[in-house]
Amino acid sequence: MACPGCGAAIAMRLLLKGLGEKAIFAIPACCWTIIAGPFPYTALKVPVLHTAFETGGAVASGIRAALDMKGDTETRVVTWAGDGGTFDIGLQALSGAAERNEDILYVCYDNEAYMNTGVQSSSATPYGAWTTTTPVPTAKRSRKKDIIGILAAHGIPYAATASIAYPEDLICKVRKAVSIRGTRFLHIYATCPTGWKAPSETSVRLARLAVRTRIFPLYEVEDGERFTITLEPDLCGIDEYCKAQGRFHHLGPEDMKRIQEDVDRNWRRLNVLAGKC
Amino acid sequence: MRPHYQDKVAPCSEACPAGEDIARIEHLVREGALEEAWRRIREENPFPGVCGRVCPHPCESACNRGEFDEPVSINSIERHLADFAWNKGLVASTIATPASGKRVSVVGAGPAGLAAACFLRRLGHEVDLYDAREEAGGMLRYAIPEYRLPREVVAWEVGLVLSEGVRFHPGRRLGQDLAWEELSGFDAVFLALGAWTPSALGVDGQDLSRDGLELLEAVRRGRHPRVEGAVAVIGGGDTAIDVARTVLRLGADPVIYYRRRREDMPALSAEVLEAAEEGIPILTLLAPERIEAGAEGMLRLVLAPMLSVAAEGGGRAQVLPAGAPPVKVDVTAVFTAIGAKPSSGVPNDTVKSSRSEAAGFHIRRLVPGEPGAGRPPVFLGGDLVNDERTVAMAIASGKEAAIAIDAELKGVDLEEIWSAVRVGRKGSVSMNCLAGGDRSLRRNHVVRFEQLNTAYFRYQTREEHRRILSAVRRVRFDEVKKPVPTAWAGREASRCFHCGLCDRCDNCHVFCPDVSVLKNLRDGSRQIDYDHCKGCGVCVTECPGSAMVLDEEPR
Amino acid sequence: MRRVLEGSFAVSHAVELARVGVISAYPITPQTHIVELLAEFVASGRMNAKYLRVESEFSAMAAVIGSASCGVRSFTATSSHGLALMHELLHWTSGARLPIVMAEVNRALGPGWNIWADQTDSLSQRDTGWIQLYCENVQEVFDTMLVAYKLAETVSLPVMVAMDAFFLSHTCEPMDLLSQSDVDGFLPPWRPVEILDTTDPKSFHSLSPPDYYMEFRHKIQRAMEEALAAYVEIDAEYGRRFGRSYGICEVVPAEEGARSSMALVTTGSVTGTARAALAELAREGKKVDLVKLKLFRPFPQEEIRKVLAPYSRVAVLDRNLSFGSGGIFAQEIRAALGGLEHRPVVYSFVAGLGGRDITPETIASVVDRAVREACPADILWVDLRE
Predict the structure, then answer these.
(1) Is A1 within a domain?
(2) Vertex A117: Cα angle to A111 and A120 (nearest 5)
(3) Which of A9, A167, A202 shows the shortest C-beta gap to B514?
(4) Are residues B350 and B333 in the same domain?
(5) What was the pLDDT predicted at B474?
(6) With a cut of 50, which residues of chain B have pLDDT below it?
(7) CATH topology of domain C249-381
(8) How confident is the model over A255-277, as pLDDT tens digits?
């Protein structure tokens, strides 16, 4: 039931490839609530508990506790949430779970707005983007939240970014995450052609450009302090990325300059953290 | 919108006069299926060993990889496959086509004639192949020097062609030992006599000069004429280079003189470079004025300095006398290699005159009613008609002739045949298409670089074909280019984008958001589940080689 | 075993004896003692359970939704604002048919901040599909917790056990603590129908279009209706085993074997005061029967009609208020009686909000006013400072 070219659908497929069938999913309100299909059908071959919007981290904690009580330490517990249910309304439950170092894999597929409800801005929406609640000329003035930074500050054993355009890197990270106990977080960049106003066939291409422009660097953080950049991309200017999406069409040279500066600054910062300077 | 798998044509195949299925061949090499790759070449070109050594490789100039980093070393890979087949003692595939009962004569056993003979046999016709000389091969056997094309390679590949059932009649020169009347008894005739007649220098004392081509032939026949001291070679084409380098190996000191600029030389730049490496000076913008006999058998060559003048409107630059005093050199011999004319046996004006007409891109046909024309149909090809006188073009002629003759003998409309067998739009044709093989399923659209998705390829510099040391080269006729190691060929082949062909990379299957690209695990084929496909087009965009298309759904 | 325990600790002990597997805890006065003692039980190893220190009440409910969905008996506790914050998930739990039991300490809602007894919090949630049981004393709290689990697991609906802030949560009373074997005999392990299971994967609570939703809701209502009968049965069983049962409501006549013309309906801890006050009034000749209501959801329409119809006047004591409407118990009782041809006049008294004391004198004044006034206003405020 996804839109044509849905990045979130690709993300789920890739996640499941790395995860296997011994997993239980908690899915708070997000696009996948719909994509999974209406009762009495389901698109997934793993058990799924659909839950309320803000509860992703908490429900997973409960499932984990129950499985441990039943002596099942093999089945993996996964929260699969969108950016809204992670960065905003779900942040508290995620933070609580991370603080307790709950043994769950929290995966946020990020399409950079509340897409399921019609493209409203979230704190994952990047600077300058059009959304229905940040219409031009009030396009988003604040930056995207650094969710990995937030989770690194919690000191969880593993946090990483991934992009649907780099399936090997993504699946590698899933496998690595699965081999660790404690709270593990994956932030997957998932194109939304519908909400970003881009042609459906460019879905993977945009996810690749996001990495190449360093707007969405691919890296991991272990125990909140060891940063590793997992892909050094062929650098590409942000122009190609922004021009390909209607949500950025109104941006002028000043905005582009600012975005490029932010991207460059963030990349330098990451390199310092990764001990590369 | 609906996606589906649709193989297309790679630009290398279009550029290859023989229309080889290069994208597929490189794929096979990458997979380690070397024998299959070799046979795939021979389906369209019976001379990979020859071409892999002497072809100017227009495929590499057209290679899309060239816009990414550097073209794939297609030529060297072809050489490797031929060497592999030879080392393994592979033989030509047997022909399954039933005999047509028709007889075709082919006059001239150079690459054009041999190719025509080969393909005609595969189409089921009987072939009688005639040549003026004792062995088949034409320029391959009797002109191109050993250090570029070893005799054994020619002998082996010629032997493979003849082994496909061609009756070879050596020592039969048209107009001397072979009469037109004898040819009239056949159902069709193909004349591929080549261009062996030297052009005259057109200056005083031209009789004192010697034909470069004749020298090459003498050397190829095992006769090593005495040449020593300073020698002048006039000309700027591959023949001139060959002559100069041959003279060098005979122990003399050649200098090449060319009337135009270095960049105007028609010779392959690789050849020019090798000559320079061997220490042969190339002096440009000098045109011969006259040759004078000197003392003790020496010759004095007088050359006029020339000036290159850019043409108005950006045409070919002209050379005019510079007005400077002439240059005089004392040499023991002057060899000319300034172009050859079509061989005798066919009236010279037949080729480009109204007495023949174009019958394809690389062949002509005698117009009925003219002398020598009428039943049977007579086709002309190879250096006899081609502007570009390369082996590959000759093979193209031979193939077209075979197809045209086959159509003629079956009473089929040739125009329809051409549109079915064309590879791209530059005149290459495919035997595989003629037979309704897998290539006939491809859309005849040539994939441009912009249509590829190069995100899945890494930069990797091209391996250059290694050559033996220049110092060694100067004194021996050993083959200059070294054999290509298998690993090297594999590496190069994996740089190929396989433009227009599905190479089972799985991107479509991995990226489909609707899990609608299904893989058959047994045979690896792919199928689209149209019930669930939403036509988003991600598969088509992420296909690295542009092997898919997105069409509007039929109503 | 005879113990002197405050209500909170009685809850903790009941949770331990019920062999709860997962506890989620977020602190709010005056529920804190419940979760603190449970933390000690788990930390010391005497209780085999997972204790989740969640970071808010909605996470507390979300966590037990997760654990109950895997078939493990679960518990949480809250009060007032915490319950309000859980509101969305209260709907979710009943919609998900999860037999979660929650101890709810009735405390006032702010602003202004008030930590004392008030029933508005739990009553505001009466539409959420939770079974609601109210308790008079510490013993009843303990007993009701155990009954709640059995009831919840029988009808697959969540149960809220309500007790007044401080009057019950922090007041020590002598009570009987059952033994583990006693409880095991009464409350067997939970056998859930459908759970999250990788060997039989299913999706729960997905998108439910109009074609299906109404039937789901109908089933919940049916379960509520079954809960009424189930409660009575389970309560009776508890009584047979352990000598204590409470029924849907308890009638205490002013005079043995007779029926007065007026009844006073109470819930929660004030019932204890009312017993004493009405006994005193009866000695003075003012006969008023006490009706203690325990089961509020499902609302026992039949029982209420049966019990109250014979009275000419019914005074309802609400320690709660629905703004723009009135005392909630009174409202529901009026509605239950509305269809009767001969129905009592219902006096809705709002008293004790935010923990204001309801003394025997208060009760006396309530009775007085109910006697004097013929046509009562919709709300009769008690002890309001002018």
Answers:
(1) no
(2) 60
(3) A9
(4) no
(5) 86
(6) none
(7) Rossmann fold (3.40.50)
(8) 999 999 999 999 999 999 999 86
**Domain identity same for B151 and B265:** no
Residues of A in contact with B541 (CB under 8 A): 201-205
Amino acid at C25: A
Range of the domain at A154: 7-273
C216 → chain A, closest CA residue = A39
C113 has a chain A CB within 8 A of its CB: no
**CB contact A99 to B (< 8 Å):** no
Residues B333 and B347 grouped into a single domain: no
Q: Are residues B175 and B209 in the same domain?
A: no
3 state SS of B249:
helix
Whether residues A203 and B510 touch (CB distance < 8 A) is answered with no
Answer whether A66 sits within 8 Å of C67, measured CB to CB: yes
Q: How far is CA B316 from CA B207, B288, B304, in A?
A: 31, 21, 20
Overall size of chain B counted in residues? 555
Q: CB neighbours of B235 closer than 8 A, spacing ≥ 6? A: B212, B243, B256, B258, B336, B337, B338, B339
Nearest CA distance, A100 vs chain B (angstrom): 35
Domain limit, last residue, from B290, B317, B338: B338
Q: Identify whether A24 is part of a domain.
A: yes
Residue A115, by phi and psi: left (phi above 0), alpha (psi -120 to 50) or beta?
alpha
Question: Residue A44: inside a domain, yes or no?
Answer: yes
Contacts with A41 from chain B: Cβ below 8 Å: none
Of C55, C66, C204, the CB nearest to A95: C55
Are B203 and B265 part of one and the same domain? yes
Chain A neighbors of B510, CB-CB under 8 A = 13-14, 167
Residue B326 to residue B304: CA distance in whole angstroms: 5
CA B520 to chain centre: 40
Total tally of structural domains belonging to chain A: 1
Predicted pLDDT of residue B355: 72
Give residue-wise pLDDT tens across range A86-109.
999 999 999 999 999 999 999 999
Give this prediction's pTM.
0.85
The answer to whether residues B205 and B291 belong to one domain is yes
Residues B334 and B347 grouped into a single domain:
no
- Amino acid, single-letter form, for residue C261: S
Identify the H or E element spanning B510: helix B507-511
Do the chains contact at A13 and B534, CB–CB below 8 Å?
A: no
Asked if B540's CB is within 8 angstroms of A204's CB, the reply is no
**Number of neighbouring beta carbons within 10 Å of residue B454:** 16
- How many CB atoms sit inside 10 A of residue B446's CB? 22
CB-nearest partner of A10 from B511, B535, B541: B511
Work out the minimum CA distance from C201 to partner chain A, whole angstroms.
4
Residue B427 in domain: no
Chains near A (3 or more Cβ pairs under 8 Å): B, C
B222 plus B155 within the same structural domain: no
Residues A5, B455: C-beta atoms closer than 8 Å: no
Q: pLDDT digits over A222-268, tens only?
A: 999 999 999 998 899 999 999 999 999 999 999 999 999 999 999 99
Would residue A2 count as lying in a domain?
no
Domain boundary among B311, B338, B365: B338
Q: Quick check: A38 contacting C, CB < 8 Å? A: yes
Q: How far does Cα C58 stand from its chain's mean position?
A: 20
Instruction: Please tell me whether residue B4 adopts helix, strand or coil conformation.
Output: strand
What CATH number has the domain spanning C2-242?
A: 3.40.50.970
Tell the residue number behind the tokens 């159509």, with chain if given: B407
Assigned domain for B11 exists? no
Domain count, chain B: 2
Interface test with C, best of A24, A35, A89 (most C CBs within 10 A): A24
Q: How many residues does chain C have?
A: 386
Identify the closest residue of chain A to C204 by CA–CA distance.
A49
- Contact criterion met (CB < 8 Å) for A59 and C208: no
Indicate which of B538, B541, B543 best probes the interface with A, i.e. most A CBs within 10 Å of its own CB.
B538
